[in-house]
Every structure is written in structure tokens, then in C-alpha cells.
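Friendly challenge for the regulars: who can give me the C-alpha cells for this chain first? No prize, just bragging rights.
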Amino acid sequence: MPAALLGQPPRCAGAGPAGRLRGTGMGHDLLVIVPLVQASAVLLLLTLMTALRIARMKLAQRVEREQRAAFEVVHKWVAGRAPEREVLAVLDSCLDDALTRVARRVSTELPAAQWEAAVSLLRRTRWFARMCRYARSRLWWRRLDAARCLYEVGRPSDADLAVALIGDRNATVRIVAARIVRRVASPRLIRAVLEEALRSEPVLQSYLLGLLKPYGTLLVEPLVDIARRETDHEMLAAAIRFMAEIQDPAFAEAIRARACDERASVRLAVAAALGRFPDKDSRATLVALLGDQDWRVRAEAAGSLGDAVALEAIDALRERLHDEEFPVRLKAALALCQLGRRGLECLLETIRKDRARDAELARYVLRFQNRARIEKARAALGG
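First reply, four minutes later:
Bragging rights claimed.
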């Protein structure tokens, strides 16, 4: 009788003992095959890693041998003991990394006259021509190699390539390319590095501006031009701060012209910078900024007036002792301390009037100043 009529579920194919045996056998095979495949993959990976490490070691050894041989023939050529054609043939047979190291050794180990001759020789190699092509490559590591090459053997004629690399989309390439300005201090290159620095994030900006500080006189024209024409407030504020670090008197007028800028960040940078330019017009501008609507600008202007020792600003600073914002009152009190006897008399007068909030601040600042004087005297006696 059919199983369905008896109320029993129908049997599926392979549901008997033979089917169970077949299923168990397949599972057993998988338990063996999967670990073998995994072990083979791990073994293959370890083999590849070992082979890659061996290849890198051999490549490093070859680069070291070639750079030693190349530097030796360059040194012989500079001394007049080897013909140029043979030297170029040796250099053209070397790897790019080897010649990059040769260029670095040439710049650090040879005297100036011999260095110039060696650089002119390296610029006539196929390696240098290849690096110039790499400067416009789509691959960032090739552009990085080109930037390193130009840093070692660059000349003013390479300004176009250097400017393109300074504006590269890769940050590493930009940093290395900016160092070219140490070799090629052309106004165009300095301007390119300056603009890139002012657009960069703070850490990179600090590094790039540090590269430019030795070229103070060459920075005057581009910085003044940026201060007059730039519209981006972050770039403008960064330019004003950098001008304050250089402290060239030619910057004062351009900075003062931005004192009425509608953006508070720019006025804040102006207030901080003018303390480095203690001329009459700058002090007058700072007094005007004491009435700014932004409390940060008022506080910075008060601090700058103290740095500039603006005695004519004592009355304006006395008014700021009653400002609504505590940082402004504190900066005004500290500025009065920097203005000598008249400033201290102003603070003592505030204490005598015994307006609770203002008197307490004046007492605090005077105690702070006395403590600073004591510490300074102790340091002098200890030295």
C-alpha cells in the first residue's frame, strides 16, 4: 500500500543508509580539502614574501654598487682623469635610484666649484631627461622621483617643471618640490611656494613658510601683492601672520589697509600683526581696533598696544578695563603693565576707585607682574 495512504511521509532519494553514507563521505572530503587549500595559500604567500624580500635585497645591493661606481667616475671626471664620453656611458647604464644617490652625494661631499661641474654633467645624462619626462607623468611616484631629482640638480631653467610639481595634487610631491626653492631661489618659484603654503593646512603651511624665511627681501613684493589683492580670508590672514614674522617695514601699510575688512578673522590677524610694527600710524590703527565689534579683535589690539609700548593709548586701554568681555579686560590690564609707570598708575587708580570687578582684576595683574619680576631676578641670580 502506498506510504501516503498509510499517513507516512514519502522517502526522498538518498534518504536511506546509502545516502547518509554518501553525505558523510562528502563532508569528510571537505574537511580534508579546505585545510590543504588554506595551507597551500599560506605557503604560497610566504614564498612570495620571501622572494620579494630577496629581490629587494639584491636590488639594494645593486643600487649601492652602482652609486659607488658612478660617484667614483664622476669624481675622476671632475679631477680631469676620465673622458666625458666614457663617464656618460657609465652613468647611463646605472639605475635611477643609484644616480639620485650620486646627485645627493655630489651636493654634500664636493666643493662648490666641483659641485657645479658635476651637476652640469648629471644634467646631460639620460637619467635627467627621463626625470624631466616623469615630472608630467600620471603616476605620482614618478613625479616624486622628478621632484627629488630637481631638488638636487635643478636650475632656473627648470622653473616651469618645478612650479607644476609644487602645485601637484599629491601632498608628498608638493613637499619635496617645494624644497627646490633652496637650490633655485627664483622670484617665480618663491611666489609659487608662498601661494601653496598659504593655501595649505597649518602643519604643512608652517613647514613651507619655514623654507621661505631665509628669502625675506624676495618675499616683500609677493606678500604685499597678496595682502592687497587676495579675497580668500584664510589665505589673507595667513599672509598677514607671515608678514608679522618677517617684520619688514614695507609690510606695515599693506597690513593697515586691511584693518577695516568686513571679515573678523582678517581684522584679528591685523590686530595681532601691527604690534610688530610700532610706528605712529600702526599704533593709531590699533587704538581704532580697540573699539571693534568683535571681542577677539579688541583683545588682540590691546595686547599689541602693549607690545608696541603705545603710551598714547593709555586712556583707550583704561576704557577697555570696563569691557564686557573678560579677555579684553585682562589684555588691557596686561598692556598697561607694559607701558611703564603711567600704566601702573592707571591700574592703581582703578584699585583706589574700588569697583569690585575692575579692582580685583587690577590687583591680580599687579601680583602677576610682581611674581614675574621675582622669578626673573631669581633666574638672573641663579645664572
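The first helix runs from residue 17 to 78. The mean pLDDT is 85. Your move, everyone else.
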